[in-house]
């Protein structure tokens, strides 16, 4: 189904965005601590 494929790509994109946003935060927290 096309809809299922679109939802899958949206989830993958969101996970990538979360990694990009959260990873630097953890990195900076480790550097500060």
TrEMBL record:
Listed transmembrane segments: 6-28
Keywords: Membrane, Transmembrane, Transmembrane helix
Domain of life where this protein originates: Bacteria
Statement: the UniProt record of this protein carries the keyword Transmembrane: yes
Designated name of the protein: Uncharacterized protein
